[in-house]
Amino acid sequence: MDRSARVGIWIIATGVIFALLYAGRDILSTFALAVFLFLIIEGFATAIDNATRYVNLHQARLIAVLMVMGGFVAFIALMANGVAEFGRDAGDYETKINALIADAYRVVGMHEAPTLTQLIFNARGQEFFATIANSVSGLSGDLMLILIYVAFLFSAQSGWSLKLDNIFPGAERRDQVRAIGNEARIGIERYLWVQTLISALITILSYISLLALGVQNALFLSALIFVLNYIPTVGSIAAALVPPLFALVQPAVPGWVPGIVPENSYVYAAIVFGTVSFWQFSIGNFIQPRMMGESLNLSALVVLLALAIWGVLWGIPGMFLSAPLTVLMMILLAQSKDMRWMAILLSSDGNPRGSAGLPDGGAAAVNNG
Question: Could you tell me the pLDDT band of residue 72, with boundaries at 50, 70 and 90?
Fold first, then answer.
């Protein structure tokens, strides 16, 4: 079969794969989230096991599961408390937002500005909030399914090695496949682990800054920053915009904040934006690349394209998983002689191998074996 025919087959196969991913997004995205949650727990367990001699791996996994579950419960409680706190001051927020809407209409020379109630309770507003309500309702059901998947992944983990031995009876090819799998797993685990640490660092510093600036419900906003930082590039931008938007509509600007006129919400929001953006920019551009190393190895353009493509395919879960899924795809493409060129294009340094150190003939052996 000539090269053009093989490329044509790959293009058709790629279209079929994307169609299947989109058609099965409700099932596949939930299972993918469970797999990556499983890898996060394994990363915690490995770190705990390496840090102490008094805890074996099974005990470390139990501790890691309890830590992650505790984190989920704390996050849900935090979000519920934040929503309740905003609800208690809903009248004050509405008054402030109505004033801002009136200011915006005056700036552009328009009169009779609508109120927040008129904007929200029209047909588009009701449709928007209905969509959010349906998404939240679906997320709660997906969460239980994700936890069930994770439990079964742990129970099935012990049999993976035996299954691999039976699928690949040849020792040389089995070792090559195991090396490829370990490369993918190590890269994804390291990415998720480092991303969690980076998100936690940005969140802590942002929380301290928001408290110092007198932003209301700083803990709730910091939790949003932590979650948003898992979305590549766009998430960091959103995380920098959310706190100043809430600061802008905050009913009362703290008078003790240096250099701030209490009535000037725009200056206050700008200072909040500058402070949060400073942590996002400095940590994201100086600390994160050093910690991430070669675990991501994707060009910036590929990261943006992957975010858009996986977002279309799987929605919000796809946006969260876009980077590790693309890393996995790059590693798998690198094992084929015909598609290695695509893996090279996806990589940032032209070396899609990552850190596994497979021999140059490994991909051909896997492809031809």
Answer: confident
Q: In angstroms, rounded to a whole number, what is the distance separating the alpha carbons of residues 343 and 44?
A: 29
Please provide residue 298's backbone torsions phi and psi, each rounded to the nearest 5 degrees: -115, 140
CA dihedral 260, 83, 321, 163 (to 10 degrees): 140
pLDDT per position as a tens digit, 155-182? 888 777 788 778 878 888 888 888 887 8
> Rounded to two decimals, what is the model's pTM?
0.78
Domain boundaries, the chain: 28-88+122-167, 179-369
Tell me which residue of 307, 310, 291 sits closest to 299, measured CA to CA: 307
Is 169 in contact with 239 (CB distance < 8 Å)? no
- Looking at residue 4, its amino acid is S
CA dist 324 and 301 (Å) reads 15
Helix, strand, coil percentages, rounded to 5, for the chain: 80, 0, 20
Alpha-carbon gap, residue 43 to 61, rounded angstroms: 9
Q: Is the dihedral of CA 28, 194, 296, 351 positive or negative?
A: negative
As a whole-number percent, the residues of the chain with pLDDT over 90 amount to 13
Give the pLDDT score at 299.
Answer: 78
Residue carrying structure tokens 């294009």: 345
DSSP string, 134-160: HHHHHHHHHHHHHHHHHHHHHHHGGGH
What digits encode the pLDDT tens for the residues 114-166?
A: 777 777 766 665 665 666 666 556 666 678 888 889 888 888 887 777 887 78
> Which of 160, 148, 206, 163 shows the shortest CA–CA distance to 185?
160
The predicted structure's pLDDT at residue 253? 75
Please list, in sequence order, all residues whose beta carbon lies within 8 angstroms of the beta carbon of residue 248, skipping any fewer than 6 positions away. 100, 265, 266, 268, 269
Cα angle value 300/295/313 (rounded, 5°): 55
pLDDT exceeds 50 at position 354? no
| CA-based nearest residue to 186, from 64, 31, 358 | 358
